[in-house]
Amino acid sequence: MANDWLPLGLGADDIERLAGDGRLEHVVRRHVVPLDGAAPVVVVGGYFRIFRSAAFVRDVTLGLAARGDVLAPGAAFGDRSAETGAEALSEGSVLFLPAEAWQRRALAEPDLHLKMAASTGRRLVRLQQRLEKLSRAGVESRVAASLVELADDFGTPAAGGVRLDLPLSQEDLARLAGTTRETCSSTVASFARRGLVQGGRLRGMVVADRAALLQLAEGGF
What is the mean pLDDT of residues 7-30? Predict the structure, then answer.
């Protein structure tokens, strides 16, 4: 179900090549990994919510990351007044790459450097699209867009559509869509009544009509 916005993640061989240069850290659910260094962080296992926060403003979810995704440091967002981090939505692990190791790899293995740069660049483009949607689209459109994104990035084919088997709560989906848990729950329930999804919880939910959800998502502009 890949689409134009599918993140370009690193494979197992790529991660193994980088493992000797960095520091592997295992984390528990809800642990926050700061992204304020000068080099990328690679997700080795688990699922993470990438967010940005500023004073007096509730943090904004920028997207989700899974194994192989390369997370850009906070400086990449161009605003040092805001904090950027990755919150673990499950047990997981990340690989911290020192700046000097990152630079050495970039010179010695340009293919790996280009793959990491492509992953980071794709994530930044998606970030711009998400922030635009959060500022202009309605709630139904944002929830629909989030479900399409999850289905395309992490879904697996199943009878009747695409199954989501993610360790995410309704609150996690709400934060991804930029709304409250109550509003998100009622919106998902409405989708279920209309046959767009099957099930009300993300773990085991089936996206039954991706085309209709995508139409709702694009109709919000």
Answer: 86
Domain-by-domain residue ranges, the chain? Answer: 12-135, 137-218
- DSSP string spanning 16-38? HHHHTTSEEEEE-TT-EEE--SS
SS (H, E, C) 9-21: CCCHHHHHHHHCC
> Is the Cβ–Cβ distance between 68 and 11 less than 8 Å?
yes
pLDDT the model gives residue 7:
41
The residue to which tokens 């997981």 are assigned: 92
What does CATH list as the number for 137-218? 1.10.10.10
Q: Which of the four CATH numbers 3.40.190.10, 3.40.50.2300, 3.20.20.70, 2.60.120.10 does domain 12-135 have?
A: 2.60.120.10
Structure tokens at 70: 């390369």
Q: From the DSSP assignment, how many helices (H) and strands (E) are in the chain?
A: 7, 12
> What are the Cα distances from residue 150, in Å, to 21, 173, 215?
31, 10, 16
Q: How confident is the model at residue 95 (pLDDT cuts 50, 70, 90)?
A: very high
CA–CA distance from 27 to each of 49, 94, 156, 173 (Å)?
Answer: 13, 8, 26, 21
Instruction: Give the pLDDT band of residue 2 (cuts 50, 70, 90).
Output: very low
pTM beyond 0.70, yes or no: yes
Structural contact between residues 136 and 221, judged by C-beta atoms closer than 8 angstroms: yes
Q: Between 105 and 220, where is the model more confident?
A: 105
